[in-house]
Amino acid sequence: MSAEEQDAIIAALTPVIDGIAATLGSFCEVVVHDFRRPEESVVAIAGSVTGRRVGGSMSEIGMGILARGDEASDELNYLTRTGDGKIVKSSTMVLRDSTGKVFGALCVNLDITAVNQAHALIGEIAGVTTARAAVPTTTFGNDIGSVVDAIVDSHQLRQNKTWSELDRGRRLELFRSLDERGVFAVRRAVEQVAARLGISRASAYTYLSDARATSTTSNTPNTSTASTASPSDAATPDGTEPGATTPDGAQP
Fold this sequence. Notes:
Layout: H1 3-24, E1 28-34, E2 42-46, H2 60-68, E3 75-81, E4 87-96, E5 102-111, H3 113-125, H4 144-159, H5 168-180, H6 189-197, H7 201-213
Antiparallel strand pairs: 1-2, 1-5, 3-4, 4-5
Helix pairs in contact: 4-6, 5-7, 6-7
């Protein structure tokens, strides 16, 4: 793997995105992500749909690609909804170097809110009504912390229970799901997830370690950039034994 080669690919794409955005118009945003720095993955951006800027973070979609590592593939023509209600049609194309290593992504986001509204209006006028599929809400932000919090919150909403109401199996399932979606590839994500759930850092590391150990998936989660701060030896509020250690394979 050559960092120089990866840098050259990103540098070559930077002027290209301006042309794409100019061609597709004001409702288009094109973003170059560098997965080597997931907390500040936006290294170039043209247009404004998601409100991000250079130095902004990836979304949970990017985290999912990061978690799949070199097995990741392009995700094309999918719909998401931003926090402020925009309907966005997106395509995410992974960037690989000559060895096949995935190190980034080129994303095209189109704000189709007005098109969607016009389609619904024309359907009503024509007397044709069609059921519209639910569009998942995706958090786009310049702060990776807001993205991590949104992912944790969405999992808890689906469980429809607070952390204290979950049994151990459901707790491990939550941590396993977060891990598979690439959350723990972000620095200090374990500590942030712990704070969001209201548990100790030691407990969070223990649940993550146990979730990885009991995972039934065939692919080992990508932990190359996982958070590694040492947990406290103090007793945890949810009864986890003190002295938990960080998962094997984590790096500073």
